[in-house]
Amino acid sequence: xxxxxxxIPLVLFLGMGIFLYQGLFxxxxxxxxxxEGKPVPAFKLEKLENASEFITNEDLKGQVSVLNVWATWCxxxxxxxxxxxxxxRQNIMPIYGINYRDERGAAIRELRRxxxxxxxxxxxxDGRLGLDLGVYGAPETFIVDHNGIIRFRYAGPIDQNIWxxxxxxxxxxxxxxxxxxxxx
Amino acid sequence: MRAFAIIVSLCLxxxxxxxxxxxxxxxxxxxxxNNQKRALSLAHSLRCPQCQNQNLIDSNSPVAQDxxxxxxxxxxxxxxxxxIVNFMTTRYGDFVxxxxxxxxxTYILWxxxxxxxxxxxxxALVFVRKQRKAVEIDQGLSEEDQKQLDELLNRNKDS
Lengths: 184, 159
Known about the structure:
The complex is a heterodimer of chains A (about 180) and B (about 160).
Chain A: H1 2-6, H2 8-23, E1 44-46, E2 54-56, E3 65-70, H3 75-90, E4 95-100, H4 104-114, E5 120-124, H5 128-132, E6 140-144, E7 150-155, H6 160-180
Chain B: H1 2-20, H2 33-44, H3 62-76, H4 81-92, H5 107-139, H6 143-158
Helix pairs in contact in B: 2-3
Family (chain A): Belongs to the thioredoxin family. DsbE subfamily.
Protein name (chain A): DsbE family thiol:disulfide interchange protein
GO cellular component, one term (chain A): outer membrane-bounded periplasmic space
């Protein structure tokens, strides 16, 4: 019995070692999103291409959609753009753009030059919607279900890997859910 | 003594350095000095979500700038600390708090040091008790034994 007691420090050490070792493989950049499971924050913002037309959070309801935060000043967004173009051509779900802290002219020019994968573009010039969405850098991508609830958030450029492994299965599942509820 | 003086002066320097670093770059005008004090200390306790090793004041990233301005404004609007912290955590998660909340996920974090301290004290106590017992045994030489011991020692001296 006494000898067993002597092993307690070793056990504690091993336990702590395993705990800390696991920490080595966590990605410190990946923050858990506080917004998953919550509705898209209420907003009413101008359309990028047309200042007299407004888009609100209500417009996102009714079908599963993807929200993509982008800007012309963001190099990773440029890297992501060709993939978004390909995605848009597949017509799986609408992709809404949130043009984040950008200049209207520059953003429109960029879309004209590189192609426009977005169903509609929300012009978030002062970053207020971004702030409410907990955006800490562009690009970020949100999957929103047909009730306007944020179901998943991905920070960083999306590519074929993350799309086919995580995002697409989720979109398919949410679309099935929507169908079950008889929405689309 | 000298080492102690060096350590004390080092600590003081570090303390002053952290206080000086608190000057923000923004030119935000607070409604009152009191508001400014409260807003700055709040912004100090919140982590920048972009550059994760800095608080909202130390960081120059656009997100941190926005957020600290938001904090300043909310303080001036008369919002309570809890409301402001809540505003931040609903958007960025508990991650932004330098001082984590007390809930089931953080019990180990908050209680761990005290548990370790208790274990340490317990081990120390057991150790000290054992030593004391050992000393008592040493002193427990009976008169007869002592006499015998003296005799032996004396005999050794004679020869």
